[in-house]
Amino acid sequence: MIRFACFICLISTTLVTGAPAQDAASRFVIPADGAMIGQGPVHREDWFQNLWRSQRERFAATKSEDQGAVTFLGDSITQGWDDRLSSEFPGMKVANRGISGDTTRGMLNRMDDDVLAIDPACLVMLMGTNDLELNATPEMIAANIHDMIEKAHQHDANMPIVMCLVMPSSEKMRRPATKIQAVNGLLAGIAKQYPQVFVLDTYTKFAEPSGDAPASLFPDLLHLNDAGYAAWATALRPVFATYGLVENEADSFQPEDGFKLIFNGNDLTGWGYRPADPDFAKQIEEWRKKDPTSPGMPAVETPVAFDGMTQSPDGRYVAKHGRLIVTAPVEGRLIQELSTTQQWPGDFELRLEFRASPMADSGIFIRKPQLQCRDYKTAGPYNELTKYEPQQWNEIVVIVKDNVAHATCNGEVLESAMKLPETGPIGLEGDRGQMEYRRIRIKRSD
């Protein structure tokens, strides 16, 4: 299958652009500019006219069978999933609404018929790269995407929307990094208006240090190869799991001899909020004085336990199918800490696994000091790790002896001698992006 964002399609039939007629066939003709909602360019070449019509006719033909599917909306990069959607997400009903060469204005005009008419269980959006190639401004692109999200919100305010950031490309493809970054900055701002929107950072995950696309995943510096789609699927899977669309089996893990689970996998028993450490709270306050856009931290006046609860009252921490999920904050960044209600003095070994969304920023508090736990490859600080696997499960082991912690990730040293106070809880920080923890267990040495 051809998967180019802009290509010459050798189809003999030529459609004339104009106001849509009333018959079923012509309603899929691209309307005249004055009859279209939104702003910015659309392709009007014969190849695209024919492709837009044929794809939309096919979407209409599968409307009944696609009801309630996880729906992917976009251009050639989305259309290019082909059969990979079913193979990457087995058991999850999917519908592909990508049209090669389409722009955000085209997608906005087909949103009702192609997407909302099938009442998606979740909507995955990736779009905007073709607009840039056609000289649309970042503001035009963002405005169209905002209108699409507003349509989805009006249709169903609870429908999850995964907004994938515009992927990297190249100046050679008339898609410079500076413009892509400008679009993505606007999209992050839009997402803050809609709690149902999860921003998946598919720019930083793929971009080279230069900001351009790596040829190893984007052979033509625009379209993904098989490895690129596999990486995109890996980034999406944890988000789908949080929405209950995949990975709904119970975790059958049993701790090793001598280890005790301190998260039971079913609810937040043994965990809760406690007032922030005064020094840490003061540090946050100082950050915000210098930069009002830096993340805040909700005040906790008195300790509160979440025994028997499957999520914290604010929804930031969720227990689901063996995973303790730190959900992404609507604000973009918001610092919080979930702590054990039990103190942990003496020597012990802590083991757990974590899975981070792209650019996620979290941390593990050990009595008081924080061990940074992030999407290490993109968010650091240990971004030179060779065994860390992005968006996969990775193991942290912390050995505490004589109030000093030695910590590793998949066997590689993170901290060799982190000094600790004599006692304190174990805590999990939330800051940016989604983080999941599981199999949290401790073995005391005494």
Structure description:
The protein has 446 residues and is α+β, with helices and mostly antiparallel strands. It folds into two domains: 26-242, SGNH hydrolase (Rossmann fold), CATH 3.40.50; 260-444, Sandwich (Jelly Rolls), CATH 2.60.120.560. It is built from ten helices and 19 strands. Strands 6, 9, 10, 12, 15, 16, 17 and 19 form an eight-stranded antiparallel β-sheet that branches. A hairpin with a 3-residue loop joins strand 13 and strand 14. Helix 4 runs parallel beside helix 6 (138-155) and helix 6 runs parallel beside helix 7 (177-191). It is elongated and about 75 Å long. The termini are far apart. The model is unreliable at 1-22 (pLDDT under 50).
Secondary-structure map:
Layout (H helix, E strand, L loop, with lengths): L45 H16 L8 E5 L1 H4 L4 H5 L5 E5 L5 H12 L6 E5 L2 H5 L4 H18 L5 E4 L12 H15 L5 E4 L25 H17 L17 E2 L9 E3 L4 H13 L13 E2 L11 E4 L2 E4 L6 E8 L7 E9 L4 E6 L3 E5 L1 H4 L14 E8 L2 E6 L2 E8 L6 E7 L2 E10 L2
Parallel strand pairs: 1-2, 1-3, 3-4, 4-5
Antiparallel strand pairs: 6-19, 7-8, 7-11, 9-10, 10-19, 11-18, 12-15, 12-19, 13-14, 13-18, 15-16, 16-17
Helix/strand order, N-terminal first: HEHHEHEHHEHEHEEHEEEEEEEHEEEEE
Taken as a percent bin, the fraction of beta residues is 15-25%
Number of domains: 2
CATH architecture of the largest domain: 3-Layer(aba) Sandwich
Number of extended strands: 19
Spans of at least 5 consecutive residues whose pLDDT stays below 50 are 1-22
Brief overview:
The protein is an alpha+beta fold and 446 residues long. It has helices at 46-61, 76-79, 84-88, 104-115, 129-133, 138-155, 177-191, 226-242, 278-290, 376-379; strands at 70-74, 94-98, 122-126, 161-164, 197-200, 260-261, 271-273, 304-305, 317-320, 323-326, 333-340, 348-356, 361-366, 370-374, 394-401, 404-409, 412-419, 426-432, 435-444.
